[in-house]
User: Which sequence fits this backbone?
């Protein structure tokens, strides 16, 4: 970058009449964010996670069986048990095991317990958090380019639910926990997907910035904390201030472990909403990939709802209606949701939820019931009778499957909700994590 200027990827807001990305300092007249925060944000569209990417670069030069065994040993017993561990892996685990001074384990546990006591927490994940995440056109491209928009929707939803459930367990992000191991795998999946997308020749850096960049990682993290709190509040749940702060604190630490940069790790709701406002100011309207992903999500949510007798009398519009009430009419219209009276279900159940929550505040018996009922609902979701899909480990991908018609490559591996199917790298790539170098990124 020269003279402090940089380019906003052309797929984001702020294009000139010819569709050419312009310097953010020129955006004032177009009602596009400007000033130091916007400039910093635009730079973060090009930044990713160098620590995790260095590990996957080194792993790519090793036999697959060797690096997978090495990683599993490091996760299970620590790097001291790994002979001749690569320096890149040592650097990553040094960061992972260096607990920031602000981390409070008791607050993390309270945050997890606060979410898990909410039986309708899954509804907020499936009908608010994920639809908003999928609505970001550049952010959804790692999924869209995999050619797996529809067929793996249930698996993505189950993986997301499993991950959130694991993180919210007592000591869910402690070094020996399942949540910690899942977080490391998701981080390395992101790194692998970046390199495979860049190798594939499909990734349009000039339009989308870096794949799975810092902004989209932070935005996803926010939708699991601030977004979840907003949705649960709309459903009638009541939270003490300490509980709201605790849930945000939990996901702040999860974000740190996932490689989100320090300045994007928000400490309270005000910061979270302020960052989300900036994100939405930059993000364009949802695209066809957004709508395909959300439609598949609603269909798989409806499939689960039909497991219950009342759900058999409803259509998929039930899920669309609940989602519309949670994300708002404007966003629902952009995603082309059908108009349905089911949107009134949310305000209809809000008073009942509020009454139960009020009783919980004053009754230890109701508190105990909520503590049991919420986790029980999540366990049902993750059981064989719940969401469809496997329950094995999150697998770091080997190949990238491309959108049909764009390549002859085919998929081989199953991954988490954040990562597409994978492929062996065949060509050198231009790194998109160099901070937005114009000469390489377009």
Assistant:
């Amino acid at each position: 970058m020269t003279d402090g200027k940089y380019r906003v990827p052309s797929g984001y807001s702020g294009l000139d009449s010819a569709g050419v990305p312009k310097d953010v300092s020129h955006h004032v007249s177009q009602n596009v964010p400007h000033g130091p925060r916007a400039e910093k944000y635009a730079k973060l569209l090009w930044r990713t996670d160098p620590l995790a990417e260095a590990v996957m670069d080194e792993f790519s030069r090793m036999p697959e069986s060797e690096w997978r065994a090495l990683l599993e040993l490091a996760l299970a017993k620590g790097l001291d048990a790994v002979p001749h561990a690569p320096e890149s892996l040592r650097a990553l685990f040094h960061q992972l095991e260096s607990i920031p001074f602000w981390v409070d384990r008791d607050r993390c546990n309270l945050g997890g317990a606060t979410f898990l006591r909410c039986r309708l927490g899954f509804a907020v994940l499936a009908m608010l958090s994920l639809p908003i995440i999928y609505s970001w056109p550049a952010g959804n491209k790692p999924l869209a380019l995999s050619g797996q928009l529809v067929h793996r929707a249930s698996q993505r939803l189950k993986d997301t639910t499993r991950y959130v459930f694991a993180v919210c367990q007592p000591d869910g992000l402690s070094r020996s926990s399942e949540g910690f191991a899942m977080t490391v795998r998701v981080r390395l999946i992101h790194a692998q997907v970046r390199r495979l997308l860049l190798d594939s020749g499909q990734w349009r850096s000039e339009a989308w910035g870096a794949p799975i960049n810092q902004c989209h990682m932070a935005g996803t993290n926010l939708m699991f904390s601030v977004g979840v709190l907003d949705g649960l509040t709309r459903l009638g749940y009541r939270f003490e201030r300490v509980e709201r702060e605790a849930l945000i604190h939990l996901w702040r630490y999860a974000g740190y472990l996932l490689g989100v940069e320090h300045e994007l790790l928000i400490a309270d709701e005000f910061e979270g909403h302020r960052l989300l406002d900036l994100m939405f100011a930059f993000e364009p309207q949802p695209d066809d990939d957004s709508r395909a992903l959300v439609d598949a999500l609603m269909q798989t949510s409806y499939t689960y709802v039909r497991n219950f007798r009342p759900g058999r009398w409803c259509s998929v519009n039930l899920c669309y209606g609940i989602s519309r009430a949670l994300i708002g009419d404007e966003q629902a219209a952009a995603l082309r949701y059908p108009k349905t009276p089911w949107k009134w279900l949310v305000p209809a159940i809000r008073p009942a939820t509020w009454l139960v929550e009020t009783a919980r505040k004053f009754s230890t018996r109701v508190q105990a019931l909520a503590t049991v009922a919420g986790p029980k609902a999540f366990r049902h979701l993750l059981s064989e009778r719940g969401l469809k899909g496997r329950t094995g480990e999150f697998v770091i991908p080997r190949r990238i499957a491309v959108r049909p018609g764009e390549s002859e490559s085919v998929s081989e591996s199953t991954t988490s909700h954040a990562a597409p199917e994978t492929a062996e790298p065949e060509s050198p790539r231009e790194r998109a994590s160099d901070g937005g170098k114009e000469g390489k990124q377009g």
In short: Confidence is low (pLDDT under 50) at residues 1-5, 14-30, 405-442. Residues 178-200 form the longest helix (23 residues).
